[in-house]
Design a protein that fits this description.
The structure is a homodimer of 466-residue chains. With 466 residues, chain A is mainly alpha-helical. Chain A contains 23 helices and six strands.
């Protein structure tokens, strides 16, 4: 048992209420104190027993100056695996602090997919330096070739470490080969069967290999249902494929159809989380996870979205401006108009959320757009009528003016109908234009619902109330 | 090659532009026509070659009456695996149409986790009926016991089919055992090593079993780093554990510490998607994915959220109502007030989105709340100042009234500062109260930003402009 472990148990107990596994507030505090005192022995004692994923979390949670001190004091403990688990921004800061040779040494133990993930976001010169410092020539070539595929493609996600064998090999030969081979992947779950052109033709899960007698040929036990992925395929597509068919790993082929790598489900789990997170952030108008960023960068990152929003808010104000005369005659309109706009915005956001998600999961297809549009129009109309009655009733009672109630109700129906339609139309149009539907859809939608909401309400009021 | 396959290839080509794998618009249309004509042979020819996941998608995409006819014509083709892939609402409709014995026969081939997933949402009497009809007594017991664990717990996710062996067994014994055993799980990636009390003490990935010589004992090759999951653990926690440590499978233990099941990564991939989706839907104010629901149910499902929103919109209107006199004196206020409210809402939503996600990924912990609150306050203040200058400048120029610009700017700073703080405080308070932070946070937040936005703007205007 590594030294420090029992004490870590105690620390874990103390801070266990947070539901974190390897990491606790108490441990974080102890590490902070060791860093403060410059007590290297104590620091190593505390972090040595941590799982790479937990050490990565710990490093993420430190303040910038603490992190710098930790790397200076115990940089060698930051293994390739820790790098692979760490968040991009933080990783870059650490790599900048380390010697390229140390980074290269650390990542040379990783499978290609993880090595690529560690260095893909660095500046080209730094990337070059680390690549050149990789001790193994084959690694150098493999990582460089993976980097030649587009960002977020299968070529970046795949590892080049896999086992491919000809169909005529027997189970016995295969097992003997694996017992003797030196350079096997760290983890693998199936063996690929290839033809003489190195194209994948079948797959043998390890458990069927183990269950089968030695003289049987791979050809006779291999599964022929292959989900072959081209190296250029986008990772979102890869995630969909794994999710759809419950895959554990899948072969990746180059342009010639030759097997060049394998993607495993653990990478896809990360992708699934990232892609869903991306949708969440885009819908919320945040460029990315910025919880570990400093305040100034965070404010800067969020600025653009707010600026776009200011432009659309001013546009909506301009609509109101056209009706200043109307409002001047009946100030109740100013009181009630935000209700109509807000309900349209919310109803539209509901449709938008469902549509963005359905596009991502391929539940919304070109063939079903018309049907879904028809449905969303009806949904908008139904809820429009219900809320027209409710809001109109409230308004009429509030101001003792039935006509005002009718105008509120009429504007509500119009705006919720439009909201339902545009909640679908906007993301679909963005999607067909190959723009991510989550990015700009929200702001476009609220522009529509604000403008239509104010226009319908103040317009109807001008016509029927004054 | 199954009949119909080449034709399906052609169909796939025709509709392949949508990026769907097994399913195309052309195939959907052909199935629709076969259903229309009642051509059972053609129907079977079309759907027989489909992967279970694709057949599930096809069934989901049919209209209610078509679906009914398909099950009536070719119900036997709906295997247990298809049931496992199908979406809840649709599955229930189909099960209602089928005989309990047929459902039982279909799911008896599944691992317990999938069988549980198929029947867990049914009414208790129907569940009972299907359970009783399960041909295998052990299955019946296993599924019933899994159902005794809370919904969304590890006990529901786990499969009871796994291999556990004592540490003194050799690799050779293990391989021979697996070659002879009849009742092995469908897919598995590691073997669990247990002590005489059946508690898990180690794990042997299949690839190390294959790489090791026959006389070696499991004790000598097993990994001791176990991530043991209690059966009551919530699935969100399970997902976090798999994601954090890149697990491929993990042992589940009962209250006594005895190994009772195993959770595999494919189940967790589903959970990860579901949980992220849940956050997306809750943030968007939609109860759940309703793309396959009829319009009336969809409208009903979304009604409650809109009703809550109406209440808060009326509350905000009530604030404006208090300032009717002020607006009456200066109608420009009605034109500009939505800008202040809207910017606060958007800035707050940014913070809220990051906070909700950080709580889910455990990047926000009790220990870091104060630090993040400090940061969000600064971010709110920074962007508040920038947008105060921008919006104040626009307002002052628009109306040629510098004082109006100062009032807009002052209100903007106040509202964006409050928005940043409450964007964090609201989800954190909900989280500590054990309410899902994504659910109610959005509506609470916009209530705050609308009320504060109108109050600050109209209040300052009343004090300094009139």
């Amino acid at each position: 048992m590594p030294s420090g472990a029992p004490e870590r148990e105690a620390l874990r107990e103390a801070g266990g209420g947070e539901g974190l596994y390897g990491l606790t507030t108490a441990l974080l505090r102890a590490v902070g104190e060791a860093l403060e005192r410059g007590d290297e022995a104590r620091l190593r004692e505390l972090i040595a027993p941590l799982h790479a994923a937990d050490l990565a979390d710990l490093i993420e949670r430190l303040r910038g100056d603490e992190r710098h001190r930790l790397v200076a004091m115990a940089g060698a403990i930051v293994s390739g695996e820790v790098f692979a688990f760490i968040e991009d921004d933080v990783r870059e800061a650490i790599i900048r602090q380390l010697d390229s040779r140390d980074v290269a040494a650390a990542i040379s133990d990783l499978d290609t997919d993880d090595a690529v993930a560690v260095i893909e976001d660095l500046d080209p010169p730094q990337q070059r330096e680390i690549l050149d410092a990789l001790p193994d020539r084959a690694d150098r070539f493999g990582v460089a070739e993976s980097l030649s595929y587009p960002e977020n493609s299968a070529g970046r996600l795949m590892q080049r470490e896999f086992i491919s064998l000809p169909a005529f090999w027997t189970v016995g030969q295969t097992i003997d080969f694996m017992r003797e081979a030196e350079d096997l992947p760290h983890d693998f779950y199936e063996i690929f069967v290839v033809n003489p052109r190195q194209e994948p033709i079948g797959t043998v899960p390890l458990n069927s290999l183990l269950r089968t007698r030695r003289p049987v040929r791979l050809r006779d036990i291999m599964g022929e249902e292959l989900h072959v992925i081209a190296a250029e395929t986008d990772q979102e597509e890869v995630g969909y494929l794994f999710d759809q068919y419950d895959l554990i790993s899948a072969p990746v082929v180059g342009a010639s159809g030759r097997l060049i790598g394998v993607i495993t489900v653990d990478d896809v789990l990360d992708v699934a989380r990232e892609e869903a997170e991306e949708d969440i952030f885009r819908l919320g108008g945040v460029p990315e996870a910025d919880i570990y960023r400093a305040a100034l960068q965070t404010a800067g990152g969020r600025f653009i979205w707010l600026l776009v929003n200011l432009a659309t808010a001013i546009l909506a104000s301009f609509v109101i401006y056209q009706f200043e005369g109307t409002i001047d005659q009946m100030v109740a309109l100013a009181v009630l108009m935000p209700i109509v706009a807000s309900m349209g915005g919310n109803a539209g956001t509901q449709t938008l959320t469902v549509a963005v998600r359905a596009i991502a999961t391929k539940d919304l297809t070109v063939g079903s757009i018309r049907r879904v549009l028809g449905k969303e129009t009806i949904v908008g109309l139904l809820n429009g009528i219900v809320f027209a009655v409710l809001t109109g009733g409230v308004a009429a009672a509030w101001y003792g003016n039935p006509a005002l109630g009718y105008v509120v109700g009429g504007a509500m129906i119009i705006n919720m109908l439009v909201a339902g339609m545009f909640g679908l139309i906007i993301p679909v149009v963005l999607w067909r234009l190959r723009i991510d539907p989550a990015t700009a859809a929200g702001v476009l939608l609220t522009t529509v619902t604000d403008v239509i909401g104010f226009l319908a309400f103040l317009g109807l009021a001008g016509m029927f109330l004054l």
